[in-house]
Amino acid sequence: xxxxxxxxxxxxxxxxxxxxxxxxxxxxxxxxDFCDREVIPVINEYxxxxxxxxxxxxxxxxxxxxGTSIKGYGCPGMxxxxxxxxxxxLARGDGSLNTxxxxxxxxxxxxxxxxxxxxxxxxxxxxxxxxxKIGAFALTEPEHGSDAVALESSAxxxxxxxxxxxxxxxxxxxxxxxxxxFWARDAEDGQVKGFLVEKGTEGLxxxxxxxKTGKRAVxxxxxxxxxxxxxxxxxLEHANSFKDTSKVLTATRYGVAWxxxxxxLACYEAALQYAKERKxxxxxxxxxxxxxxxLANMLAELTHIQLxxxxxxxxxxxxxxxxxxxxxxxxxxxxxxxxxxxxxRDILGGNGVLLEYLVGKHLADMEIxxxxxxxxxxxxxxxxxxxxxVQAIAPSRxxx
Length: 400
Description:
Layout: H1 3-9, H2 22-39, H3 43-49, H4 55-63, H5 80-93, H6 95-115, H7 118-129, E1 135-138, E2 154-158, E3 161-172, E4 179-186, E5 192-198, E6 204-208, E7 220-231, H8 242-277, E8 279-280, E9 283-284, H9 289-317, H10 323-347, H11 359-371, H12 376-388
Parallel strand pairs: 1-4, 2-4
Antiparallel strand pairs: 2-3, 3-7, 4-5, 6-7, 8-9
Helix pairs in contact: 2-5, 5-6, 5-8, 5-9, 6-7, 6-8, 8-9, 8-10, 8-11, 9-10, 10-11, 10-12
């Protein structure tokens, strides 16, 4: 969806760029230029060593994009279409950095913006927009992935505090975050609620997870709270059931769909450029019918997901996006994007697994995207519930 490469790489085959506003094109180009200039030349080393590039935190602050579509509080207040384009361009640059940013700007800041009190918004959002404070979002538990609503972390009111206990897993940014949005079940009414757990809270411990085969440059951690006392005012004022949690998840699921577009875009660009330059049996790969057929099918799928995400962004901006719409996009885009990345890896042959050719990294990262923020199966059941009116995910449980 980038005008300056459409003629050479065909990544905007249906001229979607013409449907964007000037502001949307500008923010898209700003992030793409940043990734081309700053991220892509150095990120492979961090990905290979499973190290987080902390120097990019300040660079994100300079871009002024944290908080994306949040209005006020020092946030950009951009359209949801622009927000999606930011995610796509960051993912095109590197999936790990996009996850870091998505957790901070989408999940953590989004939770506060959607569910926080005015005082909580005033305190946290301006600092987080400037990247002076970094956020994390702790929902997933070791024994509860797709069935997040069944979480076992507990919150017990004790005077002016809540006492929190629980164990979380796969929590991006948690090992260095200044504030963690921690989800726990209130012992009094059994409802899932959100709490702002600040760095240095007694009873809070984190451990970075190792051995990942994808998203290696973002640190995801196990988080444990043992009798951690959190001031009552740190409870998110409007987070009083899992339905409230789902409001945040639906918004961020939209962003994950755009992330798939970014990975697919990067791999299609890389595969087409490689096919033009690589000679096999004395001829460029582009001279072979099978390669042209594969590239054409990759472009068709890329165009499908670009169109789906653009339309979903328009609906989001109009206040018409439903939970099922977001899930349909995440499900469809992740599936198609993963195949585009796999086809690109195949076109590159053995070179496709080398970091310097990029597509192997994007394919590994897409495997993570395919699973997180709700698996393919769970997304289909959310859509199924919306179109049939029947809940088939699991029997009803307390807290829903």
